[in-house]
Amino acid sequence: MSPLISAMIAAADAAGEGLIADRERIATLTIHSKAGAADMFTEADLKAEATVRERLMAHAPAYGFLGEEGGLTPGSDTDHVWVVDPLDGTTNFLTGSPLFAVNIALAKQGEVVAGVTYVPAMDELFWAETGSGAWLGERRIHISARTTIEEAVLGVGIPFATKPNHEQFYTEMERLTPRVTGIRRLGAGAIDMAWVACGRHDAYWEQSVSAWDMAAGVVIVREAGGVVTDTRGNALDLMNGTVLASTPAIHEEMLAALAPAHAA
């Protein structure tokens, strides 16, 4: 494990410890709304981001920092940017579900080169660095061995009240539900991508997703043997807002199913 990954894991672990403590006092947390009741954040999100930022800046103070809560702070090293979601799955966190995560990635010239997704309530730590494989704790992980879309279990980010592309989502469901074994909505894209990497899901897609939600998962999925593009099959752009992570075996069929609603 490199010093880079060690620093990222330490930051995720510290933030996760704080989130577990804050979960015990959910009733007293101050809840804020970004764009209506369906899109919330709390003081727990803010504390977790501050914890991650402090740890990462101590490791590499010249790097930029892009956080969900605080936005972008450019660094003197313009090639490197930390991309952080301190609490992916805030609604899950607030409603008692264990499916929330600390998501930390490092992008170099726009390409993700290292990622950590920590699910503190389940004590599952997913991590990867380019060229070093993908890991769940100390165990190497790989994508699913299933080879057909008929066998596939898919993860999806369903658009909620403040999200666009509802009609597109209905079309995707119409195309996919008759063909696959199952479709799951975890409520935390970071965990969806980690589950693709370890074979629990065969694919995950979302049509309106932020860079910090998917960044760590990009390298984790790729190092596990998967493919990550946007939902049109183009090279992934973290700022483009769409993502498809899948096994190579079903990637093309997934792209066909995710084609724009007006397509045949």
UniProtKB/TrEMBL annotation:
Q: Which CDD domains match?
A: IMPase
Q: Which UniProt keywords apply?
A: Hydrolase, Magnesium, Metal-binding
Q: What is its EC number?
A: 3.1.3.25
Whether Metal-binding counts among this entry's keywords is yes
| Highest rank taxon of the organism | Bacteria
Sorted alphabetically, which Pfam families does this protein's record hold?
Inositol_P
Q: What class of enzyme is it?
A: hydrolase
What GO biological process terms does the UniProt entry carry, in alphabetical order?
inositol metabolic process; phosphatidylinositol phosphate biosynthetic process; signal transduction
Detail which positions bind Mg(2+).
E68, D85, L87, D88, D213
The protein's matches in SUPFAM superfamilies, at most eight in alphabetical order, are given as:
Carbohydrate phosphatase
Q: Which GO terms describe its molecular function?
A: inositol monophosphate 1-phosphatase activity; metal ion binding
Enumerate the catalysed reactions: a myo-inositol phosphate + H2O = myo-inositol + phosphate
Question: Required co-factor?
Answer: Mg(2+)
What the entry lists under InterPro entries is as follows: IMPase, Inositol_monoP_metal-BS, Inositol_monophosphatase-like, Inositol_monophosphatase_CS, Inositol_monophosphatase_SuhB
| Family assignment from sequence similarity | Belongs to the inositol monophosphatase superfamily.
What is the name attached to this protein's record? Inositol-1-monophosphatase
Organism listed in the record: Sphingopyxis panaciterrulae
